[in-house]
Write a structure and sequence with these properties.
248 residues; mainly beta; Porin; eleven-stranded antiparallel sheet; 68% strand; elongated
Length: 248
C-alpha cells in the first residue's frame, strides 16, 4: 500500500516537471485583429436637384355677378391632370433640411356650371398652367425626408361664358397670384435619385373679371370669381452635390 502511494506521488511530480518544458516547445498562438466596427452610410440631402412631376388636381370656382345684375351665379369644380418640372436647392444641418424651389406645370383642370342668374348661359373655367415658388423645411431619417413647404403661387386662369355650347364672352386676361402651403415625403432609392409624394393647397386670389362679347366687343358682364385648388402629385428628382458620408 505504501509502495503504491509512493509510486503515484513520483508520477505526479514527474508530470509537473515535464509540463513547462512541453508548453515552451508549443508554437505561439497566432494574433488575430479584432473585426472593425461597421460604419453605416448617412445620406446627405444637400445640393441642387432637378426633377419631373405629375398628378391630379381640383379647384372650386364660384361666379358672383356684380353687373349688370347683382347675384350669385353658382359654383363648379374644375378637375384634371397636370405635369411639369421643378428645380431647387437643399442644405442639411444635422437631421434638419432647408430648401428653396421653383416649379412650373401645364394643367388641364376644367369644369362648368349653368348660371343661376342667366340660365341660358354656362360659366366655364380652366386652369391652363401654374407656378409655385416656395421655401421648405424638413426632417430627415437618413434616406427618408418629411418636408413642408409654403410660398407664392401664380395661376394662368381662364374663364368664359358660353351660350349654346359656343363662347359668348371672354375676359382679356386672367393671370392670378396667390399663395400655397403643402408637404410631402421623399425617399432616396439610388445615390442621387429620389421620389416623393406631395400635396399642395393653392390659395387663389379673388378677382373681379370683366367679360366682353366676343362678337361685338361690348361689355357683357362683370363677375367676382373666387375659389382655391388642391393638388396631389408624384415627383422624381435627380440631385447633384452633397455626397454620402460615413456616420461615426
Amino acid at each position: 500500500m505504501k509502495k503504491s502511494f509512493l509510486l503515484g506521488a513520483l508520477a505526479l511530480i514527474s508530470l509537473g516537471a515535464i509540463a513547462p518544458a512541453v508548453a515552451a516547445d508549443l508554437p505561439a498562438r497566432p494574433y488575430s485583429k479584432a473585426p472593425e466596427a461597421f460604419i453605416p452610410a448617412l445620406y446627405d440631402w444637400s445640393g441642387f436637384y432637378l426633377g419631373l412631376n405629375g398628378g391630379w388636381g381640383t379647384a372650386n370656382r364660384c361666379f358672383d355677378q356684380t353687373a349688370p345684375v347683382v347675384g350669385t351665379e353658382g359654383c363648379h369644380t374644375t378637375s384634371g391632370g397636370f405635369a411639369g418640372a421643378q428645380l431647387g436647392y437643399r442644405w442639411e444641418t444635422g437631421p434638419w433640411v432647408w430648401g428653396l424651389e421653383a416649379q412650373g406645370d401645364w394643367s388641364g383642370l376644367k369644369g362648368s356650371n349653368i348660371s343661376l342668374v342667366t340660365p341660358a348661359d354656362t360659366n366655364r373655367s380652366r386652369i391652363d398652367a401654374f407656378g409655385l415658388f416656395t421655401g421648405q423645411v424638413g426632417y430627415a431619417w437618413n434616406t427618408t425626408l418629411l418636408y413642408f413647404k409654403g410660398g407664392a403661387a401664380v395661376i394662368a386662369d381662364h374663364n368664359n361664358i358660353l351660350a349654346a355650347g359656343a363662347v359668348l364672352a371672354s375676359p382679356s386676361g386672367e393671370t392670378r397670384w396667390g399663395g400655397t402651403v403643402g408637404g410631402g415625403i421623399e425617399f432616396s432609392f439610388a445615390p442621387n435619385w429620389s421620389a416623393a409624394f406631395e400635396y399642395n393647397h393653392l390659395f387663389i386670389a379673388n378677382a373681379t373679371t370683366t367679360f366682353t362679347n366676343v362678337n361685338s366687343g361690348a361689355v357683357f358682364s362683370t363677375d367676382r370669381i373666387h375659389g382655391d385648388a388642391d393638388l396631389v402629385s408624384v415627383r422624381v428628382n435627380y440631385r447633384w452635390g452633397g455626397p454620402v458620408v460615413g456616420k461615426y
